[in-house]
Write a structure and sequence with these properties.
The protein has 23 helices and 21 strands. Helix content is about 40%, strand content about 20%. A hairpin with a 2-residue loop joins strand 4 and strand 5.
Length: about 700
C-alpha cells in the first residue's frame, strides 16, 4: 500500500529532519515525532484540521461566557505577575467603545512588550459579563476586523502555537523546494492551485475562500498521488512474470459438473475471471468479494483444482483452526474421488512432531496437492515442491507481512484473496485499489432471507421461549456473548455465565455447550464436531464462530449486547444461520442509549444486504474501524475523507489511470516530478517502461 506524506516529494532539503529548524532540540524533536512529524516535508504537510474565523463584535452583542473578539485601546500599563514554576499573569484595563473592562492573559509573558498603553488591538477571549472581564486567549494579528487562522492538532509535549511557528519558519526556508506533482493540464481543468500555493494557503489563508480552495486542491492532490501510486503498482505487477498455469480445461469442466448444485451466474462469471488470470503468465493478484453464504469457498476449490491439473500445488490460509478444519474436511470430501491429496496444517498439527514432520516431507516432495492451514503455513520449515496458487480466506484478518510470507513460499504464485466482509466502493478504491476485484453479487438459489429482530433485555423471557420452540422443532441455535469471563470494567453478560444460566433453564430438555477462544484447539474441534452432529442443541459462544462455520441445521442466532459489535461483525454472525432450507432467525438483544446505537440496530433489522450494511458501517464508524487500518492497509489521508469526498476520489482515480496510461507519460516533461515521486515512494527504485 502506498505510504503518502501530504503530497510532498521527500528529496533534497525537504527530507531534512525537523531538528534542523531553529530552536528545535532533541526533546522537541521527540515530541514532533510522536505527532508523525519527522521531516520538513512532514511539517509542511501537517495541515490545520480547522480554521477559526473570528469577527470583531460590539460589547453590546456579547453574551455572558461567550468567546469573542473585541477591538479596543490599551487603557493602562500592563502588570506582569509571576507565580509558581513557569506561571504568569498579565492584567490591564481595556477600553472597548465606551466601556472599560479588565483583561487577563495567563502564561504569555512575552505579550507585555506588545501591550502598549494607547495602542489599538484586537483580543480574543471569554467574556464574563458580571465582572466585566475578559479571560484572554490570544492577541489577534489582523486589526482590520477579522482574523482567519488555522488550528492544529497538538499534544502535551508540543503546543499548537509551537507547530504554527515552526511551519512559518519551515515555509520561509524551504518553500522553493516544493514541487508540483499534479500535471498542469489537470490543475487547469479542475481549477487547482500549484503545490506551493496549496501549502501556503492551507497554513496561512487570508480568507475562508482561500482556505477552501487550498483544501479542495489538497484533497485532489492527495487522492491523485495515491491513485497514481496504485496504477504504478499495477504496472510493476503486470511487468513481473508470474506463473502461466496451463490447467486442463476438460478436467475442470468435468469437476464442475460433478458438483451437487448449479453455479450461479455470478459464480460462473467469477470463475472465468480467475481462470483467465491464472492462464496468463502475468502474476495474478485478485480479490474475491462476496456476501456471507454467496459461495466463495467453491470458487476457491475450482481455482485450486485448476492449479493442480496444471501440475502445481495450492494452499489456503484461514484465520481460525475451526475454519481451517472445516475447509479441509469439505475439500477432502470434494477431491477424494479425483485423487487429489488434501492435508491440514495448524498449531494442533504442529504439537504432534512426528505427524508434522511426515506432512512436511510429503509436501516438499509434491505428494500433497492442496495444503489448508492457519498462520502455521508461514513457518520457516514449511516448503512446497511447486506452489502455484495462494488463497487467503478473510484476508483482512491477516497482517500484510503474514500474507507476504505465504506468497514467498513459492516462485511468484498467483494470489487469490477472499473476504466475506462486503467492501463499499469507497474502501475498494483505497484498501484494495492495487488488486483486481471479482464480486459475487447474488446468493445461491433456495437461500431464504434471515428474519432479524431487535429485542430489548426485558423481553428475554419471551426470547428464550421462542428459542425453545425452534429447538423442539429439531433445529439448533447459537447464543453469542461478547466476553468470555466477567469484566469489572465493562458490564456485559459473559459466555460462562450465559452458559450456566441456559444449562439450568433448559435442563433435561436440551443439550447446551460452550465454545470460546481460550479453549485448547482440540477442545474447540470436539465441541464444534458435536454441534455439527447435533449432539448439542444450543451452543453458547464468543465471536470465535464469526467466520465461515457452516452448520445447515442451525436456524437461530441470538446475539447478546448486540450494540457492542460493529455492523459488519453482526452481519458475519448472522450469516452463521440461514445456510439450509429452513426459515432462520437472528435476534439482537440490546438496549442502546444513543441515537448512533439505535441506528445500527435498525440497519440490521431493515436489510440482509451486506453491501448496504458495510456502507452504513463505514458512514457510522469510519474506514479504520470497519476493517482495521493496520490489517487492511487503509491509508491515513491527511486532508481528504474517502467517504465525504468520494466524488473527488473517483475523479482522481479516473485521471490517474489516464495519465499513467498515456503513451507519452514517461517522455512528457510535465510528468517529471510525478515520475520521480512514483519511483521513490512506490516503486522503491524499480523502473517501468
Amino acid at each position: 500500500m502506498v505510504v503518502y506524506k501530504g503530497g510532498l516529494v521527500m528529496h533534497g532539503q525537504l527530507s531534512d529532519s525537523v531538528g534542523t529548524l531553529r530552536g528545535v532540540g532533541p526533546k522537541k524533536v521527540q515530541g514532533l515525532n510522536k505527532l508523525g512529524i519527522n521531516t520538513i516535508a512532514d511539517l509542511l504537510g501537517y495541515y490545520p484540521f480547522r480554521y477559526d474565523d473570528i469577527a470583531v463584535k460590539s460589547l453590546a452583542e456579547v453574551a455572558d461566557g461567550q468567546k469573542v473578539a473585541l477591538k479596543g485601546i490599551v487603557a493602562s500599563e500592563p502588570v506582569l505577575a509571576r507565580f509558581g514554576r513557569a506561571k504568569s499573569r498579565i492584567n490591564f484595563r481595556f477600553l472597548v467603545e465606551h466601556d472599560v473592562i479588565l483583561v487577563t492573559f495567563f502564561n504569555q509573558p512575552y505579550l507585555k512588550q506588545q501591550l502598549v498603553s494607547g495602542k489599538e488591538i484586537v483580543i480574543y477571549g471569554k467574556y464574563n459579563a458580571k465582572r466585566q472581564a475578559l479571560s484572554a486567549m490570544k492577541l489577534l494579528a489582523n486589526q482590520g476586523g477579522n482574523d482567519f487562522t488555522g488550528v492544529y492538532r497538538a499534544s502535551k509535549e508540543i503546543k499548537a502555537t509551537t507547530i504554527k511557528s515552526l511551519v512559518k519558519d519551515a515555509y520561509e526556508l524551504y518553500h522553493e523546494s516544493l514541487q508540483d506533482l499534479v500535471p498542469v493540464k489537470l490543475r487547469a481543468k479542475y481549477r487547482l492551485e500549484s503545490h506551493q500555493q496549496i501549502v501556503h494557503d492551507m497554513h496561512f489563508p487570508a480568507t475562508a475562500k482561500a482556505a477552501n480552495l487550498a483544501r479542495r486542491s489538497a484533497i485532489f492532490e492527495e487522492f491523485f498521488l495515491f491513485q497514481a501510486g496504485i496504477q504504478f503498482m499495477k504496472k510493476l505487477a503486470r511487468k513481473d512474470e508470474g506463473i502461466a498455469l496451463k490447467y486442463n480445461n476438460d478436467e475442470l469442466r468435468a469437476f464442475i459438473k460433478t458438483l451437487p448444485f448449479e453455479l450461479t451466474a455470478a459464480q460462473k462469471r467469477v470463475v472465468n475471471e480467475i481462470c483467465a488470470d491464472m492462464h496468463r503468465p502475468a502474476h495474478m493478484n485478485r480479490l474475491l468479494q462476496g456476501d456471507v453464504g454467496s459461495g466463495k469457498t467453491i470458487i476457491a476449490a475450482i481455482a485450486m483444482y485448476a492449479a493442480v491439473t496444471a501440475g502445481y500445488q495450492a494452499t489456503l490460509m484461514a484465520p481460525t483452526e475451526i475454519l481451517a478444519q472445516q475447509h479441509a474436511d469439505k475439500l477432502a470430501d470434494l477431491f477424494e474421488p479425483l485423487g487429489v491429496n488434501v492435508a491440514l496444517l495448524t498449531s494442533t498439527t504442529s504439537n504432534k512432531a512426528k505427524l508434522r514432520q511426515e506432512l512436511l516431507a510429503h509436501l516438499a516432495k509434491g505428494e500433497i496437492d492442496i495444503l489448508i492451514g492457519t498462520h502455521a503455513l508461514i513457518q520457516a520449515d514449511v516448503e512446497f515442491a511447486k506452489l502455484g496458487l495462494v488463497v487467503t480466506d478473510e484476508q483482512h484478518r491477516f497482517g500484510v507481512n503474514q500474507r507476504k510470507d505465504l506468497r514467498q513460499k513459492g516462485a511468484k504464485p498467483d494470489v487469490l484473496a477472499m473476504t466475506a466482509t462486503p467492501i463499499p466502493r469507497t474502501l475498494a478504491l483505497t484498501a484494495y485499489g492495487e488488486m483486481d476485484v471479482s464480486i459475487i453479487d447474488e446468493l445461491p438459489a433456495g437461500r431464504k432471507p434471515i428474519k432479524t429482530s431487535w429485542v430489548r433485555k426485558k423481553q428475554l423471557k419471551e426470547l428464550w421461549g421462542f428459542v425453545a420452540q425452534q429447538l423442539e422443532l429439531g433445529s439448533q441455535a447459537y447464543v453469542i456473548s461478547p466476553l468470555i469471563e466477567e469484566s469489572e470494567a465493562i458490564d456485559l453478560q459473559n459466555a460462562k455465565e450465559v452458559y450456566a444460566n441456559l444449562a439450568q433453564l433448559f435442563k433435561d430438555r436440551f443439550r447446551v455447550g460452550i465454545l470460546h477462544g481460550q479453549m485448547k484447539a482440540a477442545e474447540k474441534e470436539a465441541i464444534m464436531a458435536a454441534f455439527k452432529k447435533h449432539e448439542l442443541d444450543l451452543l453458547v459462544s464468543t465471536t470465535v464462530i464469526e467466520v465461515g462455520v457452516d452448520v445447515p441445521n442451525a436456524t437461530v442466532m441470538v446475539i447478546l449486547d448486540a450494540d457492542r459489535f460493529g455492523l459488519a461483525q453482526l452481519h458475519q454472525l448472522r450469516g452463521r444461520v440461514g445456510r439450509g432450507s429452513k426459515a432462520s432467525y437472528c435476534l439482537l438483544v440490546a438496549d442502546p442509549k444513543t441515537d448512533y446505537g439505535k441506528a445500527r440496530m435498525e440497519t440490521m433489522v431493515q436489510t440482509n444486504d451486506g453491501f448496504i450494511i458495510a456502507q452504513k458501517d463505514l458512514e457510522l464508524r469510519g474506514p479504520g474501524d470497519v476493517l482495521g487500518s493496520k490489517q487492511a492497509g487503509i491509508p491515513d489521508f491527511r486532508v481528504g475523507d474517502p467517504i465525504a469526498d468520494l466524488k473527488i476520489l473517483q475523479i482522481a482515480q479516473m485521471e490517474a489511470q489516464q495519465v499513467l496510461a498515456a503513451p507519452d507519460f514517461l517522455t512528457n516533461p510535465e510528468n517529471a516530478g510525478l515520475i520521480q515521486y512514483l519511483h521513490q515512494k512506490v516503486g522503491q527504485g524499480q523502473k517501468f517502461d
